[in-house]
Amino acid sequence: MRAPVQLAHASRLLNHGPTVLVSTIAGGRRNLMAAAWSMPVEFTPPRIAVVVDKNTYTREQVAKTGMLALNLPCRALADLTYTVGSVSGRDDPMPAEDKFDRYGIASFTGPALGLPLVEGCIGWLECRVIAEPHTEQAYDTFFVEVVSASSDTRVFANGRWMMDGRHPELHTLHHLGAGLFAVAAETVQGRVMAG
Amino acid sequence: MRAPVQLAHASRLLNHGPTVLVSTIAGGRRNLMAAAWSMPVEFTPPRIAVVVDKNTYTREQVAKTGMLALNLPCRALADLTYTVGSVSGRDDPMPAEDKFDRYGIASFTGPALGLPLVEGCIGWLECRVIAEPHTEQAYDTFFVEVVSASSDTRVFANGRWMMDGRHPELHTLHHLGAGLFAVAAETVQGRVMAG
User: Fold this and answer.
1) What Å distances lie between residue B71 and A137, B5, B90, B123, CA to CA?
2) With an 8 Å Cβ cutoff, is B94 touching chain A?
3) Which one of A30, A42, A80, A137 is at 20 to 30 Å from B79 when CA atoms are compared?
4) What is the mean pLDDT of chain A?
């Protein structure tokens, strides 16, 4: 069900603007937040831009390690996505706990960088930060390069999305605001017009 | 039907990762291309990052004027969106023509910057480029600030999207690849989990 994605196809996982979960680990402590704002900037090498606010605990962790993972949640994870986007890992009442423990979120270890990846997502990208201090400071924008990618082959295989309705719970989420997500529930094939 | 959007709400138009049409005008000649890769980077002031490849005619026009508009197409414009993303304005067979003329695309003039905006879209943002030569060169990424925004009030009003199925043809497009678009056809409300 989970299979590697060729790096040349990794940016396609984010081509249509889904909301992602950013996962990190630093000093043995994991964290997880939702991020509506990300986009590919290059297919080869696979590079992504993602906004991580200065106020977040994730930002502290990324500053320490220069690594983050992007996990693609699906309709079945709408509550999880909204929850980890609403609560800071810094506010955890029990220092030994993290958001994974607190909300019973299962994870597995990324093959390239050892980052915690979220079970039940449909795509996973382990990434190294390309240091760009100016854009990180001025726009909270991190440029990262994907070093490992994988997908749930029921909806993404051979470099292509298959959102044909066979697995409606596995379609991507797109945050409209205040916990309301659009779901990429249907598709339409564009045709080149005569001109 | 078309109404101004407060600048504090402008970034919400792009929060869920829709594909956009980038429109420009320079030296009296208009152009229009599709861009799957854009994201907000700030709500206030409303700032957006958008990828414009070095090979595009749009890039030449933006370099001359420092301005571009982002138009949000909807399901009804899937063919138009794929078409203007597949054909370069530079290749136009008749120098007096542009893509608007060639494909019969109606436009109106933006209120702040005079940019050509596409009729039938559901959101429009006129933007000024914030000069960032390094990220433009290294990542084809332009940071822009929105100076005017408007929306089709049937689907976006008072700073909120209403994708409740009353106007399915007006839902946003999200490019999966090769002209296949996901449509933000349904919504789901996330709830904060007990933890």
Assistant:
1) 28, 13, 20, 6
2) no
3) A42
4) 95
